[in-house]
Amino acid sequence: MRHDFADRDLLLGVLGEVRDAVLITDARLALPGPVIVYANPAFCAMTGYEPEELVGQTPRLMQGPLTDKDLMQRLKEQLVSGQAFFGETVNYRKDGSPFRMEWSIRPYPATGTPRYFIAIQRDVTALRDLEQQRRQLQALTDIQTKAGTAGLNLQAMREQVAQIGLAITGADGAAVEEAAGKEMVYTAAAGTAMSSLGLRLPVSGSLSGACYRDRVPMYCRDTHNEPRVAREAADRVGFRSGLLVPMIHEERCFGVLKVYSSQVGAFSDSDLDILNMASRVLASSLYDAQSFEQQRQQRTQLIDALPILIARIDMQLCFREINAGYTEWFQRPAGQIIGKPAVDVVGPELFEQALPYMQAALAGEEVIFEQHLWQPDGSMMPVELTYIPQRDDDGQVVGFYSLARDISDRRRAERDHLTQTLNRRGFDARLDIAFATAKRYQRPLSLIFVDLDHFKKVNDNYGHAVGDEVLRTAAQVLCEQVRDSDIVSRWGGEEFVILAPETPLAEAAQLSERLRQRLAFFQHPEVGQVTASFGVTELASEQSERDFINHADQALYAAKGAGRNRVECYRP
């Protein structure tokens, strides 16, 4: 924007293509605050609002109970002083659902009196959830390892419980509270709760006492709205929101595990669930260290009950520990998996696909990728795999933890309803992963654009119902001819796109020619022959994701310009 915000050609031409959410407001800071003057398509898609519903409104429209008020005050102070702002908080979509938003705001122009504020925003909910899942997986593993050591010291175990509560939830402080007569006593603490060690609270009338007495998990979202919390004392130690779970073993409530934060609504319901699950494992060790073997079986059952595959793999890529999900999935007893090389368990093809990621984990990286695994019934299931390095006391990598999660439901949400190929949302997610992988490991990656020739005539002459059937048939042909690792997506209208990992340009061109011939060979009952044009490109070492797509598109236009029903490769 060289001159003025009214330069809409530049605004709509550039910001409309930006994948990050962009919101522009005027520079009024007095109440009710800045007014929205522009929201790009990515922002509207993220929030569910239409542009006309946003323009003229204040960004407060998207704030709610979990929005960090202190952070918003800091935002205002920095904007008043002319500084750029960076932060993260909870915002709300039009349908009322919350999401975590990471954003930056800069004044425009950067010097002098600002006329506008430009905000760049990103939905980081999935990323934060994944980080939380990583912490939880590591914490559950720690529970098995640390709570299952022979000769447990009771006080050391109490302290370990507090530390694990802190690690599971990312809280500021954690405490183990045990009943002593009519009082609840802080017998162990971690984080900011350390200064409260030995604190005594009445069982009657306190939140901890209610959790202990009623034996139910509790989520206090705001201590200022909870009459059972001593507000002044809570504020002094930074207890503004917290989770409390009873530690129960053999029908006896041993005490309460409490974690808290200085922020309002700092936890999620899943935090409460995992803390509650963990508390039952921990309570068994606190209650009776000598009954470890029995409680180890309960902890194993806890891990087995999780709807994921969990394993520990050593430096030689052999399985060392697995949960029950592995025996069910691979239809083998644990003795035929534990101690066996991963290649013998999963098969050479899947092993070779995963090997670069395994090597990265053994080199100390946390990696995430997607793969299709064979199910016992012979079908393929899409899973998301997370590899987390396992380190010894000296910090040396001695193996890694593998977490495999079924993502079938997520995949279904990413499907085009007509062709059952991936939609644009699903394709963009796969492209991001494949692009990053190819760049990191310097692996070949090709992209193929497919456009059905003269498709408008099919709709005009035969109707949209027949046109839809042609699209479904074309999609079926493409999906049947590509490899399992290739990704087919409907790009829009009569265009499809194929992402081919581990495929150099020459092989992608051969694949395209085979697909072209197969499509041209097929005779539709009403339409007859429908041909297609193909544009092919391979990722270059210094290429951006946008250029990668543009080059495939340029090759497609070259194929159409050369007469259609042909394959053209991008040539710089």
UniProtKB/TrEMBL annotation:
<dbReference type="InterPro" id="IPR013656">
    <property type="entry name" value="PAS_4"/>
</dbReference>
<dbReference type="InterPro" id="IPR000014">
    <property type="entry name" value="PAS"/>
</dbReference>
<dbReference type="InterPro" id="IPR000160">
    <property type="entry name" value="GGDEF_dom"/>
</dbReference>
<keyword id="KW-0175">Coiled coil</keyword>
<dbReference type="InterPro" id="IPR029787">
    <property type="entry name" value="Nucleotide_cyclase"/>
</dbReference>
<dbReference type="InterPro" id="IPR003018">
    <property type="entry name" value="GAF"/>
</dbReference>
<dbReference type="InterPro" id="IPR001610">
    <property type="entry name" value="PAC"/>
</dbReference>
<dbReference type="InterPro" id="IPR035965">
    <property type="entry name" value="PAS-like_dom_sf"/>
</dbReference>
<dbReference type="Pfam" id="PF08448">
    <property type="entry name" value="PAS_4"/>
</dbReference>
<dbReference type="InterPro" id="IPR029016">
    <property type="entry name" value="GAF-like_dom_sf"/>
</dbReference>
<feature type="domain" description="GGDEF">
    <location>
        <begin position="443"/>
        <end position="572"/>
    </location>
</feature>
<dbReference type="Pfam" id="PF13426">
    <property type="entry name" value="PAS_9"/>
</dbReference>
<dbReference type="InterPro" id="IPR000700">
    <property type="entry name" value="PAS-assoc_C"/>
</dbReference>
<feature type="domain" description="PAS">
    <location>
        <begin position="7"/>
        <end position="82"/>
    </location>
</feature>
<feature type="coiled-coil region">
    <location>
        <begin position="120"/>
        <end position="147"/>
    </location>
</feature>
<dbReference type="Pfam" id="PF00990">
    <property type="entry name" value="GGDEF"/>
</dbReference>
<dbReference type="Pfam" id="PF13185">
    <property type="entry name" value="GAF_2"/>
</dbReference>
<protein>
    <recommendedName>
        <fullName>Diguanylate cyclase</fullName>
    </recommendedName>
</protein>
<dbReference type="InterPro" id="IPR052163">
    <property type="entry name" value="DGC-Regulatory_Protein"/>
</dbReference>
<dbReference type="InterPro" id="IPR043128">
    <property type="entry name" value="Rev_trsase/Diguanyl_cyclase"/>
</dbReference>
<feature type="domain" description="PAC">
    <location>
        <begin position="367"/>
        <end position="419"/>
    </location>
</feature>
